[in-house]
Write a structure and sequence with these properties.
2 copies of one chain form a homodimer. With 325 residues, the first copy, chain A, is an alpha/beta fold. Helices cover 42% and strands 21% of the residues of chain A. Chain A is built from 12 helices and 13 strands. Chain A binds a DNA duplex (30 and 30 nucleotides) through helix 3. Chains A, B: One of its GO terms (cellular component) is protein-DNA complex.
Chain lengths: 325, 325
DNA sequence: CGCCGATCATACGTAGAAAGTATCGCGGTG
DNA sequence: CACCGCGATACTTTCTACGTATGATCGGCG
């Protein structure tokens, strides 16, 4: 019959040690004195040691009692902390959010979203990993990520278990070195691009973008085939600055300010695949819910689909018992 | 109705998280499934959060449940540690022993006693302070010490509340520089001493010794009055080495080996006040009891009074309930 | 598509434990 | 020596955790 020590025993022992008097301790606990005597006797029987010295001048803990009480206080602290932490976790105030994202998302939607999220949930640990959209989708279905920000709708095994919503549209622009003939121009055409050496994201890294581009250059894909590829926008811009070629990327590239490159629109404006946010449809994590709230407040540009989906994911965490207050 | 979370609830929640199945968890707890359901529901009501997701594929903790379980495990660890630590404290295996002692005790009885005590009770914190016998007695009655090792029976307010037992006898010897005429002699007489400049412990530091010496030199105390005084044996020996005079001290001084001094007996052998060990008569500390056990085993030289007193102080820490085993 | 098995929740009676009331025993005190 | 404060004990009452029986729900399978 091991482990019969209950939290009540600890609370009673602590009250007794505080008041050094059975009667007053019992009163402070809202019970009568005899039950307190009985419960203290029960703990002492459980522990196998006398925990209090009953003297005519008061009740004092023995050496064993002192050691016991130290641990008892810590145990009760842990128990109350357990309830508090459970509440915080349920409200999404603590926990972990693992996010995979493509580099270009770091330029526009993520700084605002993550900043506000960190502000409202400072105790949520963020695990941020830059990766390609297919990698992120795979990690999401595998349970290695909680949210993914990428381009294109996730494909592959388990993709149907993901919810994906658009969080940002943009279009294709070009970036060139200031020494390039395009420098200074507000816009260039696709025909002019076809004659240039191109720098773009790798097709296997961002298949949605590559497929999109291929459809634009349908007439002559030789420029695309010969393109230098890279896995992140900073590298594309850096290579363009070296005049390796003409960089192609999302309009949010303009947010990167450096003196050795020139950005110009490509006409006609060609809309890139939307930036999408994905998460598992069956994920009920409150941290995710809190994050989606922030996303909803910050990314209402693309479509009402966001609100619709996120409203659908309103937490069903009702508790059967009495609602406090 | 706050704080209704009981240790049982924690144990049940942890078992449920382990088995991910109400029926098996209940079986592992030795109860039926419905009570487990009821108890889990009770915790969830107490905490105000749903802690487990009941899915067709098993029972899994929610985010709140995970946070709760982490704390719950720690709380249970503290509770079981409380019992263990109480037992250890009751057996005197943990705790604190504050000891005051005179420097000369550090030469003979303390190294053996403290060494064996540390060996048998490695987790007891020792607080050792060198001080004069009267200081130690006062600190003892004030509750600032647990044991005192000194010479002479404690006097002063509260001394009657102390138990004092002899733990070592010795006699007076002299120590001189190797350049002193006494060097090389096996023994000298009190008459010879009377003509020398003396070095001895300060009368206000060790009144028992001083009174003893005064009775010996009753015929002529001028040498005593003119004596250089010091509060510890090492200084007496050091001063003797400088040929400041003839040092007087306990025979256990011989345990200090240094080449520049010579020890010689003083005839007739004059027995010094016994080394005494004192503690509060009402002190029921198991650490003290354990220490007294070691003392009893190591200091059976002086008298049977030690055994007698310590047997009287056999712990009355019986526990009313069932004795384990 | 409907039946069956598994699983958890609900209902209800029971037993045990904790709380309440009354009283006793023990020390210290005037 | 009688009194009083305090904790322990005796006994009753109340509450609650447990057990048995049963219901509701969801997948799986024929």
């Amino acid at each position: 019959m091991i482990g019969g020590v209950e939290a009540r025993h600890l609370r009673y022992a602590i009250a007794l040690a505080e008041h050094q008097h059975f009667g007053r301790a019992a009163a402070s606990l809202g019970i009568a004195q005899p039950p307190l005597s009985a419960q203290i006797a029960a703990v002492e029987r459980e522990v196998g040691q006398r925990l209090f010295d009953r003297t005519p001048r008061g009740v004092f803990p023995t050496a064993a009692g002192t050691a016991f009480l130290n641990r008892a206080r810590r145990a009760l602290d842990e128990i109350s902390a357990a309830s508090v932490e459970a509440g915080r976790a349920a409200r999404g105030e603590t926990g972990l959010l693992r996010m995979g994202f493509i580099g270009s998302a770091l330029l526009d939607p993520l700084p605002g979203v993550l900043g506000r999220f960190r502000g409202s949930r400072p105790d949520v640990r963020l695990d941020l990993r830059e990766m390609s959209s297919p990698e992120a989708a795979a990690a999401l279905v595998a349970g290695d990520l909680d949210v993914a920000v990428g381009r294109g709708n996730p494909r592959g095994a388990g993709a149907e278990r993901l919810v994906t919503v658009p969080i940002g549209a943009d279009h294709l622009i070009a970036v060139v070195a200031t020494s390039h003939p395009f420098a200074g121009r507000a816009e260039i055409t696709f025909e002019q691009l076809a004659a240039e050496r191109l720098i773009m994201s790798a097709p296997d890294q961002e298949p949605a973008v590559a497929a999109h581009l291929r459809s634009v250059f349908a007439a002559d894909t030789t420029a695309l085939e010969a393109a230098t590829t890279s896995r992140d926008v900073h590298t594309i811009i850096g290579l363009a600055a070296c005049d390796v070629g003409v960089g192609l990327g999302p309009a949010r590239m303009r947010l990167i300010t450096r003196g050795d490159v020139w950005f110009c629109d490509v006409t006609p404006h060609f809309r890139l695949p939307d930036l999408q946010l994905s998460f598992r449809a069956d994920d009920t994590s409150p941290v995710l819910a809190a994050f989606l709230d922030v996303v909803r407040a910050n990314c209402r540009d693309v479509g009402s689909r966001l609100d619709e989906v996120l409203a659908l994911h309103a937490r069903r965490s009702a508790v059967p018992g009495t609602t406090p207050g």
